[in-house]
Amino acid sequence: MRIVYLYLPGRTARIPDLQAGAIPTEFFYGAPELEARGHEVEYIDVHDIPAVNKLRIAAELLFKRRYLPAKVYFPVLLGVKKILPALSGADVVVATAPGIAFSLAIWQWLGVAKIPRAFIAIHCGLFNYPQQGIRRWLSRRLLRQMHTQLFGVGELEAMRKCFQIPSERIQVNCFGVDECFWTPEKTESQDGYILAVGNDSRRDYELLIQSAYHIDRKIKLLTKRELPSNLPDNVEVLHGSWHTREVSDEDLRDLYRRAFCVAVPLTDSIQPSGQSVTLQAMACGTPVILTRTQGLWDNRELQHGKNILFTEAGKVQEFADTAMMLSRDVEMQKKLSKAGREYIMQHGRIGQFADRLETVCRKVAADE
């Protein structure tokens, strides 16, 4: 099959690193794995194209008034339109972001896009935006043109109910990570700190900061998020993200390995937040403390005290007590380290994500 992947900017620039094995494969969403299986895979970044003033203002007004689907802006629409010729002849198109997927569906609906009739879209976080009125109607209309993949079960029922998506056009495909890149270190090298990583809006860093006053361990926080200036003395902020590369993937792997645990504090949501950081840390053999939310992607295999530690959303003292308990219990650290890595090998590999996606790709291609 000829499979064309559409990404937000930043992926194609990292293909040389990918080919050299210097970065993990997961943020290409199964493309390298499908390519290794003999499929013809093309990687395309979709860049925003600035609109002329009147069009931009009109589009922004439509979004603010909740007419356009979530994450659809006029520069995204123009960016998607520009790459449409490259999709001609594709057996399957995989849109890896909601704004790209909805924009593609809009051009397809208008008869501009000559692409497969039904394409695959990876959706996450749509309910972070109000879904009502015209936006809900339009989103429902466009979602029926694509096969939706979700990272977790938390969003599945809400998507079905709100948008009335037929069951055959929506599936849960839990994310996975590159278990050959994210590996445990062979020698003892823990430095005894708690590590927190992430930039998305669902990270509850206020809880983490308040918990720090009750924790006698150093906390390293890697984020681009804006934080208060008066942080506790035991909190060290490291600035970086996947896109800016201020901290390389190799550096991040080393940070995971040297931490005695990785903390993923979240506000409650049906979005499967914190998934990649949790899985990367577990693959590195580092215990994880994760907020249990409605968006937890795997309620069956992730088990408190067996391969992960859960805390409840908003519970500062509970989070602090859990971190301190783990810091003093070396046997628990070893247990979670081993079980976490085993969980990844059985349930959290990017190759498994690619397996499930390949099945959908074949179905989409066969239906054309």
From TrEMBL:
Coiled coil: none
UniProt keyword Transferase present: yes
CDD domains named among the record's database cross-references: GT4_PimA-like
Gene Ontology molecular function, alphabetical: glycosyltransferase activity
Keywords: Glycosyltransferase, Transferase
Gene3D superfamilies recorded: Glycogen Phosphorylase B (3.40.50.2000)
Short name of any one Pfam family annotated for the protein: Glyco_trans_1_4
Protein name, UniProt field: Glycosyltransferase involved in cell wall bisynthesis
Species the sequence originates in: Candidatus Electrothrix aarhusensis
